[in-house]
């Protein structure tokens, strides 16, 4: 059973994650109003997530499914648009 979709509001930036592993790098992260941080994963896009670049440093509202992959909370979104 898939987790339900939720709405997450906050600021989108890039943070260094997976420090010390082969996956170490800068990943898109939303910092919510509550202070919680979630890595943002866009289905069908590679790890660079260039599709999110126009939204970096801005306040965003994301609708997606949350999971906890490799110890980092993650939001999985289907697509990116200025309206979503």
Please, could you describe this protein's structure?
The structure is a single chain. 0% of the residues lie in helices and 52% in strands. The protein has no helices and 5 strands. β1 and β2 form a beta hairpin. The protein is globular. It starts with a strand and ends in a 7-residue tail after the last strand.
Structure at a glance:
The protein is mostly beta strands. The protein has no helices and 5 strands. The chain has a 5-stranded mixed β-barrel with strand order 1-2-3-5-4.
Shape: globular
- Sketch the topology as an H/E string, one letter per element: EEEEE
Number of beta strands = 5
**Strands side by side in the biggest sheet:** 1-2-3-5-4
Radius of gyration from the CA trace?
Answer: 12 Å
Query: Alpha-carbon distance between the termini?
Result: 24 Å
Residue windows where pLDDT falls under 50 for at least 5 positions: none
Structural key phrases:
mainly beta; 84 residues; globular; 5-stranded mixed beta barrel; 0% helix
How is the secondary structure organized here?
Elements: E1 5-17, E2 25-32, E3 37-42, E4 59-69, E5 72-77
